[in-house]
Model the fold of this input.
Amino acid sequence: MRNKSIYLDNAATTPVDPKVAKVIMQYLTPDGVFGNPASTGHLPGREAYAVVEKARNEVAQLINCDSREIVFTSGATESDNLAIKGAAKFHARRGKHIITSKIEHKAVIDTCRFLEKEGFEVTWLKPGKDGLISPEQVMSALHEETILVSIMHANNEIGSVNDIVGIGEVLKDCKCLFHVDAAQSAGKIPIDLQGMNIDLMSFSAHKIYGPKGIGALYVRREPRALIAPLIHGGGHEQGMRSGTLATHQIAGMGAAFALAKNKLETEASRLITLREKLWQGVCELPGVIRNSPDEACLPGLLNVSFTMVVGESLQLAASDLAVSAGSACNSSSAAASYVLRAIGLNDFEASSALRFSLGRFTTDEEVEFAVSCLNREYRRLLELAPTAAL
Done:
C-alpha cells in the first residue's frame, strides 16, 4: 500500500497549479487586493476591478474572443443553466424546441428535462458508437420552432470530441442559438471562437488547474446572443449574472487559462503518449474493451471496460489508483453509465468500466505503476471469481 494514491481522475477535478495558487493568495488578505470590484469610487475597488478585467482578458485569449464576451459564473454548471434556461426564457415566444444529445453532462440534461416540464420540446440525439453527434444529425432535427442547440465539445466520460465547427456551419442560416459545454475541452484542445459559429460556451476553472467555484459563459456580441438572466440583484456582469465578483477566484481562473494557453500544444502531445501507453499496457487483458474513440478524443482521457469484473470491484482492488467508475457528476448513482449505454454498451459492459483521466502532473512512472497494478488486481479478481463473465 502506497502512502499516497496515484491521481488519475483529472476529468473530475484537477489540483490547483502552484503558480495559480500563488496568484490567488494575492487577493485575500489585508495586505493584498481584497476590495469589491464594483466599488470603483476608491482605490482598493479600482485595483480589484483591474484584476478582474485582466483575468477576463486571459480567459478570452485562450479561446480567441472579445473579453467583453466573458461573463463570470460559479462554474460550468451555472453557465450551462444560464445559457439554456436564459435562451429558453428569452426566446420562448418565438419557439419552444431545443436540440441536445443523450450524453451531455448532467448540468445540460437535467436543465433540459426541467424545461420539458415547463412545456418545451426537446429532441435527444443519439450518438454513434464513437460517442459523436454529427452535423447532419443536428441539421435533420431542426425545425421552425428550434430556438437552441446545445451540444458538448468533449464528453466527460469517454472523451469523444464533437465537430462543433461543422455543427456551427449547419446552423449558420438558422435563427436558433448554439450553446457548447466546453468544460472538459478548454485548455486541452484548441478553441478559436473567431472561426466558429457559436453563440454561447461554458467553462470551468477547476478542470484546468484553477480553483473550484468559478467558471464563465461566453456570450457572443456580434451578432448578439440574447439570453435572460437567472440571478438578479445589482446588475453585475452586464446584467447577466448579479452578485459580488470573487476577485481571488477570478484571478485564479485567469491565471489557469493563461497557463493552459502556453502549455496547450506540448501538454496535449505528452498526454496522448501517456494515454496510449496506458492502453497498450491493459489491452491484452481478457475481456477488455476500449470505450474512448481512437481519434477525436481528449488527449488524456481513456475509458475502458474490464468486462469480466464489476468496475467498482476493480476500482476498490486497485486502491493505489484514484480513478473513476463513471463521471463525478453521477458518482452517487448505482445505475450503469447513461453515456456508455447510449453508445451501445450493455449494462454489464457499462458497469465494468473505469475512466482514467491523466493530467499535467501525471508522470511516465505513474502510468507504468498503474499498468502493473491493473494487471495484477484484474487477474487476481478473475482467479477469485472465474465465472464472473458467465
In short: Residues 247-282 form the longest helix (36 residues).
